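seq/struct pair 1
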Amino acid sequence: MNLNIDWSFFTWELFSNFVLKGLYFSLMLTAIATLGGIVLGTVLALMRLSGRKWLVVPATIYVNGMRSIPLVMVILWFFLLVPLIIGRPIGAEVSAMVTFIAFEAAYFSEIVRAGIQSIPRGQVFAGQALGMTYGQNMRLVILPQAFRNMLPVLLTQTIILFQDTSLVYAIGAYDMLKGFEIAGKNFGRPIEAYLAAALVYFIICYALSWAVKRLHKKIAIIR
């Protein structure tokens, strides 16, 4: 069986015309979902650690529920059902951003919760001894240390998030994979296009993973 692989079609012009736009959206979606997910995830983590049942129960249901559903299903549900509820379309890009923030928040929440719980209780008692409120203690003492400890894990989850952005293909959003697919169809080289997409994903994720390992070693030295 001769696949007749030909890489000559893959040029910078092709990359800039078809792939660059998708790569920009994939990176933007990753950045927005990471920031939004960490903010919402931190709120959820604090709710679960508050000890107040009326905060713990809904946060637990949300986190466990989201973590039990495949991301592609959440993307499709939001994209198809929300327009029916509000009576107008919201677009694939906006739908993807909202969905990713809501979904990733559940995973970032568990990372933040573990990070907070990793801080020795003596730090909490020290803040209380200084007369700090719960909010001040969390903001000034606990969270800064917790975020430093969990930074490598947060970045690892961000890499996974970047890989998952390819799932927006299901709702027609123009991400990097979509750019490669269109280029492959236009030039009649779908196999080469998908192989090139896999290679680009690998290079980006491997480089980021290497950077995270380096950061983890530096944090370990600081400790």
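seq/struct pair 2
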Amino acid sequence: MPSDTCTGLHDAALTPDASRVILGCSFLNGDQTAAATQHVGFSTTDLSAAGGYPSGTWPTAVTTSPNGSFVIVANTNRSAETSSTIRVERLDGTLVRSYKLPTDTHIERQGLAVSADNRTLYAVTTDHTGTNPTLRLLTDFTKAESSLTLSAPSSTYRTKVTVTGTLAFTGAAVSSPWTLQVAKRDLFGTHVLPSVATTANGTFSFTDTPRFGGANTYTVTFPGDAGHLASSRSVTVQVSLFTTATTR
């Protein structure tokens, strides 16, 4: 490996099978005009390039999970107006989950570790002056984030409303149906509606006929499971307080 491949080494971690070493460097390939934006990997056999892990400007800490499934990387741009981001990635670099830390919260060098049971991520942070150290515990860090989109008409005259949406996972496509919980809130309280199943690619739709005028808010919830975090989304339809007149 050329001497100028990594300038400003902050941390290093071996993959569990010891086939690669992952480095957190300020600059890469001798270019000190632009900060690095990824942690780089090298083969432990011949130090040849072996992929990278996006981490944001100024890569800092890196660790791996004991079960060998995840690489956790963080960046640190020490400023009172910025903060660190922690990214949990699969071995191929796809994002599973990210944590945006509060302003003026920065991961220390060698400041990441994972518990032996792969359930807790530990992060040591300080402020931009390198003081006020804090140990942060992040649970369920290997669960992929989920998200929902919803769409519905903005208003209706107490006719049937169709709500459509999509369930998505960070770092992986939805490839099988999932059951989502549905509720509606109107002027007379919250009502549980029948659950809705997504298609294999995550899209879904359901219909409802509002009984009362005013704001009718539909909330769809993905309850999560062993591999995915829960998520929820709402959309509001304004229902006319009066029925439309008919003419003959």
